Amino acid sequence: MPRRPSNPKPRKRTRSEKSIQSSILRWLVSTGLLHWRQSAGLLKVGRKKIRLGPSGIPDILVVVGENGHLLGLEVKSATGKQRPTQVEFQKKMEAAGATYRIVRSVADAKMAVTESYDR
């Protein structure tokens, strides 16, 4: 029988994007801010294909402040990276005057919302 190492390295458990996103959405509900989860891609229903949203759109959109500033939150895990379509969408949002942030935690989302109030 193989022997176990006497000092095994503890595995780091990173939170999934889905888990982080759920926590952020729960927090946003508690704030009363207008927000929604935006899906992208194609949905197949029988023979039909339905486009859910433009490719690269951030996971969560939030309307912030009295002037209705648009904030896009792209949720990523600790090691997650943007896809090229997400980088392109970020450029378009920022060119239009919106804010786009990559967030990896509820704390990151809170910071992004707070910063957006100043815009």
Notes on the structure:
This protein has 119 residues and is of the alpha+beta class. The chain has one domain (17-117): Trna Endonuclease, Chain: A, domain 1 (3-Layer(aba) Sandwich), CATH 3.40.1350.10. The chain has 3 helices and 6 strands, in the order H-E-E-E-E-E-H-E-H. The radius of gyration is 18 Å and the shape is globular. The termini are far apart.
List the helices and strands and how they pair.
Layout: H1 17-31, E1 34-37, E2 41-45, E3 48-53, E4 60-64, E5 69-75, H2 84-95, E6 99-103, H3 106-117
Parallel strand pairs: 5-6
Antiparallel strand pairs: 1-4, 2-3, 4-5
Describe this structure in a few short sentences.
The chain has 119 residues and is an alpha+beta fold. It has 3 helices and 6 strands.
Global outline = globular
How many beta-strand runs?
Answer: 6
Number of domains: 1
Q: What does the radius of gyration come to?
A: 18 Å
Number of helices: 3
Which structural class is indicated by helix and strand composition? alpha+beta
Helix content: 25-40%
Q: Give the N-to-C terminal Cα separation.
A: 64 Å
Q: Indicate the CATH architecture.
A: 3-Layer(aba) Sandwich
Largest sheet: spatial strand order:
1-4-5-6
The low-confidence runs, each spanning 5 or more residues with pLDDT under 50, are: none
Fraction of residues in β-strands:
25-35%
Report the average pLDDT across residues.
91
CATH fold description: Trna Endonuclease, Chain: A, domain 1
How many strands, which pairing sense, and closed or not: the largest β-sheet?
Answer: 4 strands, mixed
CATH class: Alpha Beta
- Provide the succession of SSEs: HEEEEEHEH
